[in-house]
């Protein structure tokens, strides 16, 4: 198991190196600066942790959890950047996405405040695993909102943006599941944790390597700009109501 | 419960990634309009036809007639649903690039569409379960019941207001 984990770990680092090199060559770093900063952080901390693994266990564990929290916090910024890049041509949808995110964050903070009021000691001192799990959960919610906006407004992602989304969704979902199981099952899950963690990351990095091998812009919509949003929306709502009364009217 | 919520969220995001990976270009223009005529549905649900078939006293023909009418009624409802879908697609394709998109209005339109889809689903279920004629009778009965309740509600409201007005005067 240890040899297999080592192989996966080195494969991850190699793939991350290739990804950064291709990003620099294809000028993708300019388009997704936060995402590539995130990848650089993951690669550099991975190598630092390798060095720390020869030192004391305590320093390795401290370094590991610090890097995990940093990467997760940067991950939230990656999500924000993704919203900005993908929804840039759709200003109204972007505004709506931000409104939904703000509402979501407000609800989460409200829940946090209620929990603190009820049980201050347990809520204010979460374990690192729980903190990371909660941040990943927030990212999962952001991904769900993004997916819903993409589906509802029938927006199409280009190869680059699509691979960033899919790869990141794999990282986030696998992390939430792993961290929840780690938090719930404790030490018995540790063995699986050490194997599954690098493997899920390798799947994502391979996905990014394929999608971000070269630059590919997002497809441009050929739909014409709406001239009067208010009038168009009113008309759509009226037509919907008319269709409904027609449908029910036939059976009445 | 919280463990299930976290595991569910993780699984949901993984599913979304798979759906997105399997998705192809989805920007085709909305197809030509095709609002089904009300007259056709009136013909499908014609009571005279049902009465004539019933007068033949042949179970096989009655079954065949009901199955055909059920199929036609379902096709008509599906066509209405497609039309609503086309309307929604036209709307989102028209407004997605505008800067003054209003979340409240968008939620209202999404709600209208969801309600329409729900009504279609209920009607289709009724037609599948009881056939188009009984489904129509059920909807009529429900409508009459709702109407009677509304009238009763109005009478109660008027009755409650009258003593108050009388004491005020």
Report on this model:
The complex is a heterodimer of chains A (252) and B (169). Chain A is built from 10 helices and no strands. Chain A has helices at 2-25, 28-31, 33-52, 57-86, 91-118, 120-124, 128-152, 159-185, 190-211, 229-251. Chain A is globular and about 75 Å long. Chain B is mainly alpha-helical. Chain B is built from 5 helices and no strands. The longest helix of chain B is centred in the C-terminal third of the chain and has 66 residues, at 103-168. Chain B is extended, with a radius of gyration of 24 Å. Chain B starts with a helix and ends with a helix. The relative contact order of chain B is 0.07. At the A-B interface, helix 5, helix 7, helix 8 and helix 10 of A face helix 1, helix 2, helix 4 and helix 5 of B.
Q: Which structural category do the helix and sheet elements of chain B fall into?
A: mainly alpha
SSE pattern of chain B: HHHHH
- How many β-strand runs of chain A? 0
Largest sheet of chain B: none
Q: State the helical fraction of chain A.
A: over 70%
Query: What is the helix content of chain B?
Result: over 70%
Strand content of chain B: under 5%
Distance between the termini of chain B: 59 Å
Greatest interface and its residue counts? Answer: A-B, 64 and 60 residues
**Total DSSP helices of chain A:** 10
Mean pLDDT figure of chain A: 82
Number of extended strands of chain B: 0
- End-to-end separation of chain A in angstroms reads 68 Å
Shape of chain B: extended
Give the amount of beta strand of chain A, in percent: under 5%
How many individual helices of chain B?
Answer: 5
């Amino acid at each position: 198991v240890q040899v297999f984990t080592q192989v996966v770990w080195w494969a991850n680092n190699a793939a991350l190196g290739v990804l950064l090199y291709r990003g620099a060559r294809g000028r993708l770093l300019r388009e997704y600066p936060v995402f590539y900063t995130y990848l650089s952080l993951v690669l550099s901390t991975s190598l630092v942790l390798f060095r720390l693994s020869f030192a004391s266990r305590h320093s390795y564990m401290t370094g590991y959890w610090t890097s995990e929290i940093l990467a997760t916090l940067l991950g939230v910024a990656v999500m924000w950047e993704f919203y900005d890049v993908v929804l840039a041509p759709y200003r109204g949808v972007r505004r709506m996405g931000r409104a939904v995110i703000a509402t979501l964050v407000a609800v989460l903070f409200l829940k946090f405040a209620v929990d603190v009021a009820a049980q201050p000691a347990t809520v204010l001192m979460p374990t690192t695993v729980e903190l990371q799990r909660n941040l990943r959960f927030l990212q999962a919610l952001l991904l769900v909102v993004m997916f819903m906006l993409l589906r509802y407004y029938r927006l199409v992602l280009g190869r680059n943006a699509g691979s960033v989304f899919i790869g990141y969704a794999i990282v986030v979902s696998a992390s939430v599941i792993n961290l929840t199981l780690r938090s719930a099952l404790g030490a018995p899950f540790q063995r699986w944790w050490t194997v599954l963690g690098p493997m899920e990351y390798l799947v994502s990095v391979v996905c990014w390597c394929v999608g971000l091998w070269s630059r590919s812009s997002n497809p441009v919509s050929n739909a014409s700009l709406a001239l009067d949003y208010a009038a168009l929306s009113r008309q759509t709502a009226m037509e919907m109501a008319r269709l409904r009364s027609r449908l029910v009217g036939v059976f009445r | 419960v919280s463990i299930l919520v976290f595991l569910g969220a993780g699984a949901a995001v993984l599913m979304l990634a798979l759906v997105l990976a399997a998705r192809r270009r989805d920007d085709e223009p909305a197809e030509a309009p095709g609002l089904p005529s009300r007259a056709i549905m009136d013909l499908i649900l014609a009571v005279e036809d049902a009465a004539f078939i019933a007068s033949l006293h042949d179970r096989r023909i009655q079954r065949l007639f009901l199955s055909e009418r059920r199929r036609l009624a379902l096709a008509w409802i599906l066509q209405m649903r497609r039309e609503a879908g086309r309307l929604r697609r036209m709307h989102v394709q028209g407004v997605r690039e505008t800067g003054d998109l209003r979340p409240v209005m968008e939620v209202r339109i999404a709600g209208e569409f969801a309600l329409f889809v729900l009504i279609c689903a209920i009607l289709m279920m009724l037609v599948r379960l009881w056939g188009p004629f009984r489904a129509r009778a059920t909807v009529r009965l429900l409508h009459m019941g709702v109407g009677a309740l509304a009238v009763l509600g109005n009478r109660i409201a008027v009755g409650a207001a009258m003593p108050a007005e009388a004491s005020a005067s």
